[in-house]
Inverse folding.
């Protein structure tokens, strides 16, 4: 009789444990799914027109994903060159900032870089052999701070515009297409950074 009761008790405990595990599994699944969907929503932040806000949402999402590949790099990783013609992760982040800075003056002021801006951004914009010599021995934070500063300016400038401005043509492209290009440019280099950082 005692043995039967013990068996029944153990089976009941086992069943209860299984039920708890199932509950935990579904709870974790729900939380993970909710997190993934919340991260994947394109939604205009407060203060922006609809189309510009959607672009900001995508730009910022991509920027976070770019930075995920590099934020923990040490100095060796920041300056790492995949081969003699490659660009380092630090240089690529600088390049992303320079490209975005260029499209700021192009879309908001209708011009190219002036002499002072060229001195600041041209090497990072074009990269190449001289950039490989110059862009080293600085921590990844140095480059990420530059990127942050440029993005903050982009967002402040875009907040002053509306979707009618976004549709306007400037040169051979609309303002919308220009900022789409900035976004796809980030995506291109995100893949490059993913490859490079796996080789470090």
């Amino acid at each position: 009789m005692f043995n039967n009761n013990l068996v029944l008790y153990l089976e009941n405990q086992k069943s209860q444990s299984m039920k708890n595990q199932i509950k935990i599994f579904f709870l974790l699944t729900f939380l993970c799914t909710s997190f993934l969907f919340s991260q994947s929503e394109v939604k205009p932040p407060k203060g922006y027109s609809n189309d510009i806000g959607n672009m900001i949402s995508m730009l910022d999402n991509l920027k976070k994903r770019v930075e995920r590949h590099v934020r923990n790099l040490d100095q060796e990783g920041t300056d790492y060159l995949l081969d003699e013609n490659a660009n380092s992760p630090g240089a690529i982040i600088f390049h992303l900032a320079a490209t975005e800075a260029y499209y700021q003056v192009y879309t908001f002021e209708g011009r190219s870089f002036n002499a002072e801006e060229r001195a600041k951004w041209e090497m990072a914009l074009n990269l190449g052999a001289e950039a490989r010599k110059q862009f080293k021995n600085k921590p990844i934070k140095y480059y990420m701070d530059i990127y942050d500063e440029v993005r903050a300016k982009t967002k402040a400038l875009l907040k002053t515009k509306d979707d009618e401005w976004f549709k306007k043509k400037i040169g051979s492209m609309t303002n919308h297409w220009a900022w789409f290009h900035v976004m796809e440019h980030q995506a291109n280099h995100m893949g490059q950074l993913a490859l490079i950082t796996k080789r470090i």
